[in-house]
Structure formats: structure tokens, C-alpha cells
Structure to design on (487 residues):
């Protein structure tokens, strides 16, 4: 028994010694690491103070390039790490990119970044990665995949076009972070030859989700960044049997087209921008695709096409069985060239879905067809359509225009519309306009038309307007009506 107690005590003492040594070792390592970090940042501050102005002067073109290069090459120990930090501390402007790219090439940074990517693509044996001195030191320093990801990001930052094949290979890197960074770098470089690889990766995200770790959004964002001239390369995807791939390809072209349209006034998709084969597939196949998402995304593209058949296809989409397809079609028709088809568009004011009705009001507003809206507003039996037209008028700022026409016309649809709006209780915006308006005739007519109205609520609105009326004659006109005090 005594022997057993001695053994237990020995084991406990041994454990105490081991734990104490481990704690002491951790404390020593933490202190040393902190000291190393402090020395590193002290050196970085000194280097930044001395060399950052040199790099800034080179990028701005105010210092001789050769002299600056010679000075940067004399940086001393850990020169490459310091140069990488200094050169890429801030995102370069487009004007600075050529100088920065040349500087990184001449300093040898580009070669180092490319070599890191090549080593990652070759892979390493288990022995080298886990048991060799290099692998051990690598694990103590920066994690290996972070180095590859940083290299890919740097090559994209300086837009190093010759590195695109390496970045395409990095799309298959064993670590998902390197894949994602490579996708963004390829988008920044914008090399047309890399476009098929990104499209292939886009399809792989859908068809092989278990083996593809990069996000769909990241790949799609990269593909959309390329110019419209590369859209024909999406033809195989537009005809792919998988419905989601067809949708993504259509949506990519839609985003590219809308970006081009926002940058160029009067943008039209003619044969020069949209080859006949590509236009034909939108006009005959995708607009009738079994996937409603595909049909919906074709509408904005059709709206920009020069082919006369595009208008008829868009009008057909107004009758689609899916409400969101009709919604996209209505929004796409909000262009001046479709003003002749306002009757077909106005039919959607009584659509069974409220979002389509709301979009129709907005489209007719953009087409400046107030007469159609007034006609539907006065004659429709659909209370919801009336409410949405009135609400859209208030949001779009049409009420001042409507009241201006109401003040000038003795009779007409404007008078009936204002009367209907008052009866519906849509008066808050009108009263604000009337109160701040400088048009005396407008206020006078409103008081004359509604001053004797028997409705208590309307009487209250008229009295409130009269109380705010600065014109003595108009205030007397309103108060002369036997209106009750505020309820």
C-alpha cells in the first residue's frame, strides 16, 4: 500500500513539473514573440518613414525612376517583405498602376508572388509539409495558404496581365480562400482568355457543389465584370440542359447590358454589340424558356435590342402566367421608344398582383402618360388599383403637376381626379402643396370646390387650410362657409 502511494506521488510530482515547464515555455515564447513583433513594427515604422515618400514620388512621377529603384534595392534585411508592405499599403489609382506594376516587376516582387502560386499548385509531399524543417518553419510563420492567397491578391491589385494563367490554375487550389482570391484577381485583370475558365467555374459551382468551395456570388461577380463583347462565349451556357445554368448565363448578360446602358446614353443592342446568333436565342428560345426566372431576365435585354421583334416579345411577356415575369416586362418597357404601346402597358394597372400594378404606374409615369393614369383611375372598379395609382402619384411627386392642371382647367379629368382623391382621403400631400403654393388661383379654386362639402372630414381639411391661409380674402372666403369647428 505504501509503495502504491509513493508511485502516485511520483506521478503527480512529474505531472506538476511537466505542466510548470509547459507554462514557463509558453510564457517565454509569448514574451519572445511580443519582442519580435515590437522590433518588427519598430523597423517597419523606420522603413516607412524613410522609403514610403520615395515610393509615393515614383508613383506620382515626381522622382527619377532609376534613382528610386537603386535606393529601394539597398533596403537591407527582410527587404522583400518590407517592399511588399510599402508598395501595396494603399490601393493604387488608375494613373499609378503602370508605375506600380513596373516597380514590383523590377524589384522582384512579381517573381516571388508567381513562385508562391507555382509551389502551391505543384503541391508538397506529406513529409515536406509536416516533418521537414521548411514545413515546420512555415507553420510557425505565416500559414502557407495565406501566403498564396496574398500573392494572388497582389497580382490582381497591380493588374499583372501575364500572371493570368497562374491565377487560372489557382482556381483549383487545394484551399478555398486561394480560389476565391484568384477569382477576384482575374476579374481585376480582365484578361479575355481567362473568361472561359471563370464560366467553367461558374458551372462547376452548380453541377459539382461538393468539390467546388468558391462561392457562386464571387464567381458571378467576376464574370459580370468582363465586357459585353465576350457575351457570345456564354452561348453554350444559354443552351445548357440545366435550368439554373441557363438562368445564371442570362442574368450575367443582363447585368453586363444594364451596366453598358448606364454608361452610354442611347445604348442599343445592334448587330455590332449583339451577334445575330446571340440575339436569336433571346428572341426565340429564352423568352419562352420553361424556367420563369430565365424569361424574366430576358425582358431587360430585349428592351435594349434594335431588332423590331423584341418589342412584340416584350408585349407577349406582359401576359405571362408568372407575375414576376410580367413585373420585369413592365419595368423593361419604361423607355420612350415604347410610348406607342402605352395601351398594352396600361392593361397591367388591373393586374392581379399588386407589385405589377405598382410597376405599371411607375412605368406610365416615366412615359409621361398622365392622361392614361387619370382615365384608369377614374373608371376602374378595382379599389386596390386606385389606391396604388394614388400612392404612386404621391411618391413620384405628380400631385403638384396634377393640382397645377386642376387650377387652370374649369372642367376635365383633373377636376374629377382631385375630387376622387379627396373622397379617398388622400389629402395630406395635397394640403402640403396647397399651403406652400404661391398659386392663389389654385387655393381659391380648392376652397370654392370643397368649402361647402357636407362631409365632416373634408370640412375639417378646408378649415385647416383656411387657418394656414396668408391671403385675407381667401381666408374669409373659407371661413364664410358655415363649417363646423375642429371635431
Amino acid at each position: 500500500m505504501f509503495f502504491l502511494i509513493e508511485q502516485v506521488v511520483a506521478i503527480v510530482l512529474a505531472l506538476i513539473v511537466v505542466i510548470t515547464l509547459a507554462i514557463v515555455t509558453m510564457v517565454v515564447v509569448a514574451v519572445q514573440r511580443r519582442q519580435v513583433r515590437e522590433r518588427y513594427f519598430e523597423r517597419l515604422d523606420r522603413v516607412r518613414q524613410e522609403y514610403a515618400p520615395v515610393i509615393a514620388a515614383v508613383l506620382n512621377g515626381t522622382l527619377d525612376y532609376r534613382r528610386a529603384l537603386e535606393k529601394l534595392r539597398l533596403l537591407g534585411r527582410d527587404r522583400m517583405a518590407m517592399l511588399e508592405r510599402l508598395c501595396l499599403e494603399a490601393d493604387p489609382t488608375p494613373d499609378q498602376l503602370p508605375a506600380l506594376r513596373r516597380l514590383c516587376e523590377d524589384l522582384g516582387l512579381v517573381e516571388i508572388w508567381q513562385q508562391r502560386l507555382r509551389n502551391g499548385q505543384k503541391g508538397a509531399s506529406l513529409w515536406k509539409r509536416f516533418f521537414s524543417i521548411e514545413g515546420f518553419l512555415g507553420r510557425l510563420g505565416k500559414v502557407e495558404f495565406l501566403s498564396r492567397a496574398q500573392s494572388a491578391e497582389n497580382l490582381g491589385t497591380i493588374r499583372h496581365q501575364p500572371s493570368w494563367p497562374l491565377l487560372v490554375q489557382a482556381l483549383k487550389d487545394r484551399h478555398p480562400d486561394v480560389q476565391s482570391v484568384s477569382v477576384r484577381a482575374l476579374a481585376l485583370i480582365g484578361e479575355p482568355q481567362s473568361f472561359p475558365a471563370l464560366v467553367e467555374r461558374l458551372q462547376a459551382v452548380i453541377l459539382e457543389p461538393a468539390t467546388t468551395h468558391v462561392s457562386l456570388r464571387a464567381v458571378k461577380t467576376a464574370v459580370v465584370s468582363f465586357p459585353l463583347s465576350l457575351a457570345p462565349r456564354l452561348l453554350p451556357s444559354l443552351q445548357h440542359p440545366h435550368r439554373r445554368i441557363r438562368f445564371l448565363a442570362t442574368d450575367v448578360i443582363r447585368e453586363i447590358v444594364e451596366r453598358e446602358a448606364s454608361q452610354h446614353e442611347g445604348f442599343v443592342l445592334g448587330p455590332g454589340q449583339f451577334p445575330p446568333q446571340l440575339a436569336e436565342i433571346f428572341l426565340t428560345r429564352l423568352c419562352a424558356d420553361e424556367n420563369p426566372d430565365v424569361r424574366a431576365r430576358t425582358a431587360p435585354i430585349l428592351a435594349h435590342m434594335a431588332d423590331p421583334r423584341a418589342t412584340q416579345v416584350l408585349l407577349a411577356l406582359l401576359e405571362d402566367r408568372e407575375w414576376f415575369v410580367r413585373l420585369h416586362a413592365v419595368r423593361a418597357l419604361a423607355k420612350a421608344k415604347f410610348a406607342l404601346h402605352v395601351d398594352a402597358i396600361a392593361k397591367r394597372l388591373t393586374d392581379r398582383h399588386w407589385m405589377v400594378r405598382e410597376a405599371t404606374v411607375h412605368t406610365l409615369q416615366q412615359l409621361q402618360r398622365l392622361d392614361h393614369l387619370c382615365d384608369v383611375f377614374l373608371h376602374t372598379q378595382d379599389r386596390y388599383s386606385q389606391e396604388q395609382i394614388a400612392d404612386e402619384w404621391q411618391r413620384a411627386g405628380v400631385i403638384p403637376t396634377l393640382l397645377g392642371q386642376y387650377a387652370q382647367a374649369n372642367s376635365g379629368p383633373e377636376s374629377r381626379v382631385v375630387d376622387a382623391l379627396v373622397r379617398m382621403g388622400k389629402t395630406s400631400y395635397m394640403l402640403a402643396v396647397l399651403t406652400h403654393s404661391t398659386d392663389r388661383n389654385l387655393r381659391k379654386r380648392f376652397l370654392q370646390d370643397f368649402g361647402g362639402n357636407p362631409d365632416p372630414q373634408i370640412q375639417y381639411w378646408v378649415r385647416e387650410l383656411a387657418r394656414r391661409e396668408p391671403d385675407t380674402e381667401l381666408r374669409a372666403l373659407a371661413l364664410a362657409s358655415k363649417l363646423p369647428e375642429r371635431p
